[in-house]
Amino acid sequence: MDIPYTVEARPDTGLYNAKVGIWLFLASEVMLFGALFSAYILLRVGAPAGYWPEGWLNVPLGTLNTMVLITSSITTVMAWASLKMHQFGRFKLFHAITLLMALTFLSIKSYEYHDKFTHFEILLKDGRFADGHIIERAPDHIVIHGRIVNDEKALYNLHEKHIQLKEVTIQRSQIKSMERYGPWHNTYCALYFTLTGLHALHVIGGAIVIGFLWGPGSKLWETDPERFTNRVEVSGLFWHFVDLVWIFLFPVLYLL
Amino acid sequence: MQATATEAFPHSGAHAAHHQEAGFLRTYVFSTDHKMIGLQYGFTALCFLLFGFFLMLMMRWQIAHPGKPVPIMGPMLASLLGNVAANGIISPDLYNSFGAMHGTIMVFLAIVPLAFAAFGNYLVPLQIGAPDMAFPRVNMASYQFYVLGGTVMFFSFFIPGGAAQAGWTSYPPLAEVVQTNGQTFWLIGMIFLISSSLLGAVNFIATVIQLRAPGMTWMRLPFFVWAQFVTAFLLLLAFPPLEAAGILQLMDKVAGTSFFLPTGLAVGGKLAHISGGGSPLLWQHLFWFLAHPEVYVLILPAMGIVAEIIANNTRKPIWGYKSLVYSVLTIGFLSFIVWAHHMYLTGMGTKIATFFQTTTMLISIPSVIILTCMFISLWGGSIRFNTPMLFVMAFLPMFGIGGLTGLPLGLSYSDIYLHDTYYVIAHFHYIVAPGTIFAIFAGIYYWFPKITGRFMNEFWGKIHFWGSLIFMNLIFQPMFAQGMAGMLRRMADGGANYSGAKTPDTVGGLSPFIMGLHTWILWAAVGLALVQIPFVINLFWSIKHGPETHSDNPWDSTTLEWQTPTPPPHGNFATAPLVYRGPYEYSVPGHERDFTPQNEPDPACEPSPA
Ligand code: HEM
Ligand SMILES: [Cu+2]
């Protein structure tokens, strides 16, 4: 039994099955991320004035990552176009770059995550707040690279120019509580980790599929080149979508 | 090629060559054949239907006789579930678990998998003349996700603290602060079930768009296919927001975020240790954005089944095929913009309430059109009153009651009083139970001969029908009265605390009559359980012993699923069918038989490729 239109396009729709499938799937993905962005808007609008973090993320790194993903999108198209022109070697080359870009993106992202997870907000017994990365832990004290402020609100806007970070020693006996900048820290962190985490899962998924088509899956090129090209096209469409999500995430989380 | 198109094929089929002997696992467990997957869905979902019904029976006992041990089942509950069912008494915690899981199981594990996945999988490819679904392996994965989700849900009963307790709607903060990991299980289970539905939806839509046989134009699709098509779109676009909400609630549960937890939340009299800043209303919006379309997911496939059976048993074309198609499309669209009619009590303000009241009134128009078309279809037909048709005939008024009682709920003025009372329970159960479930029963009796080559027993079928019809009404009709008297839903004591007997000097306490209806409903529910026994026996017994059909098209039907061997082999059609006409050419004047199958060649026209 053969299912029609797995490879060739159906005349009246002009599409082969998998292409219909991926577009439908992407429609559902749009609804998924659409809902998450709506959640972002609702929670942000509802946040008390002055308590929405600004400048908490590293914009140069975010920009770099945006560039990385855009590059990967270009190489994805090139990889597919190479197959269309029957240049298998160039396909291999371009998708190698795509995979490298995916890896770069994830590495930079993990670095950023790591930075947040080692960042502490420390409530002192005198009511002040210490904030920064721990660089030394002793039994009776810790040293942070950061600063001490009187009002928690001062920690929220990092756009101000005169913020100076230095090494501060804090006696453990002074500490009331400490909290990492994890998803539990506040609504912004929760959104940041959830949205970028879900996006990163998409990147990993896409990279696995592209990696498979680049490696073992590419044997199909010899037996059924048209089908293989279709697979590369479909996985490419998914990859573009993943990039597109990031294009929205970047300004929303880093810049606004 | 065309000569074979109308006649039944020899049972061996030309496909024997393709059809390697597959092992047991490949045939029954890891099958990629849409028919086997449909049957798998059907069987699993029927088991869940029974299980969900059983939960409900336990609950009905508890609210009719609060604090008394459950007869017969009590000791088993106590030994399986421990403390929450000590001495066979259903504790309030257990009552809440049963309630939450009854709703979840019925909606997501029983009705949708039956009406959409089981019937859709089995019939859609056959009715459009396709050899299988567009993506058979995705189809298999969809079923496996479903089983996985069901397993997670089922085992959550046995973890310490028990299953989720905050209703099928899982409103936070309550859902998140209940002291059990059942809610986490619920969320993980839901994520599996949603993934399953999404895979299924993509597959259904792609199949209908791509795999229609030559000549099967859009306006020649049986109405059942249209209904499934729109349903698939609802699932595809409405489920992801609930998936998003599920992920956010899961983050709240496991990563300590506060997406749905407001600042200053107190739990057990103490300030909760959370960052706060979340919004419980956000959950309600995301939930109902799915859940209103979801209720149409429950009803549209049922309408599809009903249309097929009416056409076949009135021996007449469905009246107003085009109106039906446009109505179902309109419903599909409008169902995305009515969700907040479940939230009138959240203080949304009159402007927004007006918007949602308007859309809600609008959406009832196409629903009424569909129902009217079905009723008019009966007019002047020489109706064959077999079991499937009886169920369908009952569906129409039952759905009518359910739909009409929805209107007062759609208007905020009356809903503010009726919200969260038994009136709402009665409203939607009229649609889902004597509505959708009757359509499902009708479908089972109707298509059983195609699957097995045998009829189900008519006599026991009729017993099943009349019993179900009577008991369903005895169960749900009193709930309207209880709701209008002000009895709230989801109370573990059935409202005893608010009864006139308990607080004699308050105005508006629930009267002994209203409270007494609980007992009435309990015994009607037991009756309903008893009349299902003939059905279950009939279903299994008839596989081997039912009267043989002696024909591939025993009901003299026009649609393509009957123009195949019985049961249809892998790949369905011996030769790819060509379609020459619309789906309901019954009693066409001048034809020798009173039905003209869609693939019967028409000398006047060639099939067009679309
Ligand atoms: C025909 C027009 C319909 C209208 C105007 C309507 C209106 C409503 C409204 C306003 C509510 C919310 C009541 C409240 O919570 O206070 C409601 C609840 C409900 N309706 Fe309908 N409905 C209609 C059809 C349907 C259909 C076709 C179904 C399919 C099964 C359905 C299933 C439900 C369910 C499950 C609930 C309860 C949800 C819950 O709170 O647990 N309704 N309906
Ligand atoms: Cu609704």
In CATH, what is the class of the largest domain in chain B?
Mainly Alpha
What structural class do the secondary elements of chain B suggest? mainly alpha
- Write the H/E string of chain B, N to C: HHHHHHHHHEEHHHHHHHHH
- What are the low-pLDDT stretches of chain A, counting only 5+ consecutive residues below 50? none
Q: In percent terms, what proportion of residues of chain A is strand?
A: 5-15%
SSE diagram, text form:
The complex is a heterodimer of chains A (256) and B (610).
Chain A: H1 17-46, H2 59-84, H3 88-117, E1 119-124, E2 129-137, E3 141-149, E4 166-171, E5 175-180, H4 187-214, H5 220-223, H6 225-255
Antiparallel strand pairs in A: 1-2, 1-5, 2-3, 3-4
Helix pairs in contact in A: 1-4, 1-6, 2-3, 2-6, 3-4, 4-6
Chain B: H1 3-6, H2 24-29, H3 34-64, H4 74-81, H5 92-128, H6 136-155, H7 174-177, H8 182-210, H9 223-254, E1 266-267, E2 270-271, H10 280-314, H11 321-334, H12 350-378, H13 387-404, H14 406-410, H15 412-418, H16 422-452, H17 458-484, H18 512-545
Antiparallel strand pairs in B: 1-2
Helix pairs in contact in B: 3-5, 3-6, 3-18, 5-8, 5-9, 5-10, 5-16, 6-8, 8-9, 9-10, 9-11, 10-12, 10-13, 10-16, 11-12, 12-13, 13-16, 13-17, 16-17, 17-18
Bound molecules: protoporphyrin IX containing FE and copper (II) ion.
